[in-house]
Amino acid sequence: MSEARSQEITIVDRISVKEIRDRIEVEWRLSAKPDLEWAEVFQMTTPPERKGAVDWVMGGGPDVMDSVVRWLIPEAELGNADAEVKYRLAVANERLGLDRPVP
Question: What distance in Å separates the CA atoms of residue 39 and residue 21, rounded to the nearest whole number?
Answer without folding.
Answer: 29
